């Protein structure tokens, strides 16, 4: 199982980033996909989730209306479009694959929002 996360970096408040998580080594389309984040000194928190076919999504209240999760099962990739970024969005972002009996995690990618 392997994840390649990309798209993180430094951005000013109000800016946008698009995270990608390309997966391999498992049946991607059969897994519920989520993005989590962990800020320094804080617990890991759920940011967004998307069902296997992509028909349903859910979001943390703190990112609703600003972040959009999507997936492309043909490319085995899940995305997180982040708009109107705030300093409090600064964290390491992780993609997660939930197969009910199995659970896989990406290595994490840093997002820093600074003014």
Name its key features.
115 residues; globular; 4-stranded antiparallel β-sheet; mainly beta; 7-stranded mixed β-sheet
Structure characterization notes:
Helices cover 0% and strands 52% of the residues. The protein is mainly β. The strands form two sheets. Strands 2, 4, 5, 6, 9, 10 and 11 form a seven-stranded mixed β-sheet that branches. A four-stranded antiparallel β-sheet has the order 1-3-8-7, with no helix packed on it. A hairpin with a 4-residue loop joins strand 9 (91-98) and strand 10 (103-105). It starts with a strand and ends with a strand. The mean pLDDT is 97.
List low-confidence stretches: none
Euclidean distance between termini CA atoms: 37 Å
Number of strands: 11
User: How large, in whole angstroms, is the Cα Rg?
Assistant: 13 Å
Average of per-residue pLDDT values: 97
Order of helices and strands: EEEEEEEEEEE
Query: How many distinct helices?
Result: 0
Q: Name the overall outline.
A: globular
> Which structural class matches the secondary elements?
mainly beta
């Amino acid at each position: 199982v392997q994840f390649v996360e990309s798209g993180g970096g430094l951005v000013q408040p109000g800016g946008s980033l698009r995270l990608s998580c390309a997966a391999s080594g498992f049946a991607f389309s059969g897994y519920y996909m989520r993005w989590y984040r962990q800020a320094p000194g804080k617990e890991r928190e759920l940011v967004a989730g998307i069902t296997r076919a992509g028909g349903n999504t859910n979001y943390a209240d703190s990112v609703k209306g600003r972040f959009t999760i999507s997936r492309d099962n043909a490319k085995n990739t899940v995305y997180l479009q982040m708009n109107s970024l705030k300093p409090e969005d600064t964290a390491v972002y992780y993609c997660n694959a939930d197969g009910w009996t199995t659970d896989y995690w990406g290595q994490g990618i840093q997002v820093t929002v600074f003014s």
